[in-house]
Specification:
Distance between the termini: 31 Å
CATH architecture of the largest domain: 2-Layer Sandwich
Bound molecules: zinc ion
Radius of gyration: 23 Å
Structural class: alpha/beta
CATH class of the largest domain: Alpha Beta
Strand content: 15-25%
Number of strands: 16
CATH topology of the largest domain: Nucleotidyltransferase, domain 5
């Protein structure tokens, strides 16, 4: 197996804040990542970094094994003659990264290379939805091991691990204020993760991570201002503003699910009343259906969605109310942020009535009337690997920053 670039474990603890001197290197690498192969002169044009600096930066990256040279395809007849320009692309083998998503019912792991190509993935059921920090770290490590083993790897072959959890998380210090996956509040997950992983491990709110993945790999690639709204057990929001994830001063903003939509309303899992997710989250839909009909026998939301499609009056009423609440919430987001795009994401996206056109139409009627088109609303189609992909994208970004920083120190 080709050697990887090593990243010291104790370096894992930074997020979007990094030395501005690294910005030129990151811009060059991001431009290479966004291409199928790009010449140095085109990198200079795209980034505004001078051609001489691009040559020097890419020489360092080539020497470090982050990127590699490829020969362009044969020029077709009629095109410009002369020596073909060498193109640069990311070197997939530079890093292997695991992304992990922990839900109430399962642990999903995706292992990718530095180019973002999938190496292995799997989803395992979870016996206990709420755990201590140590139990969670051990559970994640075991799932990562099983996934790595499918590809003949171990956790020692990874450069970084990214983990997405529902809840309020300060990503800058791997601190969980609250998560539906943890049995207590205010858990410093960093030390427990450092015990099980020999590489840096990063945690963040799962909706933030989906926004990160959309920005690096998906529909948000060319955009600077877009929102990702996730609906599953709870309701989450990832905010990409000015090309960066917005996290808030305490690292726990963007709690769209806990914006209040009803005074003295339904009890939320956060302990307060009238939160949006207390009407729209999966747990809320099932609770409402069972409260309205004691004999209702919906095992999960897909049963409830099917009942609504078959005309069951109580299921229909529950879905209608949730759809109306959700439309109101989305309209509030548009009125506040005026994003280029809103991406709707979650489990069972194909069946979820909340993502149907009638909800979007309702939302449009609640947005303040301006004589320009409304932002696009699109539904993420990545399926259940989406969350792990987001976690992997985040870890990849962090490992890129760490590697470039090391590169900067070596050449300084
Ligand atoms: Zn709440």
């Amino acid at each position: 197996m080709e050697p990887m670039i090593s990243v010291a474990q104790d370096q894992g603890r930074l997020t979007d804040r990094f030395d501005p001197r690294d910005a030129g290197r990151l811009a060059v690498l991001d431009t290479i990542r966004g291409s199928e192969g790009i010449a140095r002169i085109d990198i200079a044009e795209a980034t505004g970094v001078s051609p001489a600096t691009v040559t020097s930066i890419t020489a360092d990256m080539l020497a470090a094994g982050l990127i590699e040279e490829i020969l362009p395809e044969e020029k077709t007849a009629g095109s410009r003659r002369g020596r073909p320009r060498v193109l640069l692309k990311l070197r997939g083998a530079a890093h292997r990264i695991a992304g992990v998503k922990v839900t109430q019912k399962s642990v999903t792991v995706l292992v990718i290379d530095f180019e973002g190509h999938e190496i292995a993935s799997r989803e395992d059921p979870l016996a206990t939805p709420r755990m201590t920090g140590q139990q969670l770290a051990a559970t994640v490590a075991a799932a990562v091991d099983r996934t790595c083993a499918d590809a003949g790897l171990t956790r020692h072959d990874l450069s970084a691990v990214g983990i997405g959890l529902a809840g309020q998380i300060d990503a800058t210090r791997n601190h969980v204020y609250w998560s539906s996956s943890l049995s207590s509040r205010n858990v410093d997950l960093g030390p427990a993760l450092a015990e099980v992983f020999p590489c840096p491990a990063f945690i963040d709110n799962d909706a933030n991570l989906v926004a990160k993945a959309e920005h690096i790999f998906g529909m948000g690639r060319a955009l600077t201002d877009f929102l990702v709204v996730t609906v599953e057990h709870g309701v989450g929001l990832g905010m990409m503003i000015g090309g960066k994830l917005y996290r808030g001063a305490r690292g726990c903003g963007a709690e769209f699910g806990h914006t209040k939509v009803q005074a003295h309303g339904a009890l939320c899992q956060c302990g307060q009343r009238g939160c949006l997710e207390a009407y729209v989250g999966d747990y809320a839909l099932l609770r409402e259906a069972h409260m309205s009909a004691a004999d209702a026998d919906h095992q999960d939301v897909t049963d409830l969605f099917a009942a609504a499609r078959n005309g069951d009056p109580i299921a229909t009423e529950v879905i209608d109310r949730a759809g109306n609440m959700f439309a109101m919430g989305l309209a509030n987001l548009v009125n506040i942020f005026d994003p280029q795009l809103i991406i709707l994401a979650g489990t069972e996206v194909a069946q979820r009535p909340m993502f149907e056109p009638w909800v979007i139409d309702k939302m449009k009627r609640l947005v303040i009337d301006v004589d320009v088109p409304l932002p696009d609303i699109k539904v993420n189609q990545w399926g259940n690997l989406m969350w792990a992909k987001g976690a992997a994208a985040y870890a990849m970004e962090q490992v890129t920053i760490l590697t470039l920083r090391e590169l900067g120190q070596n050449v300084a």
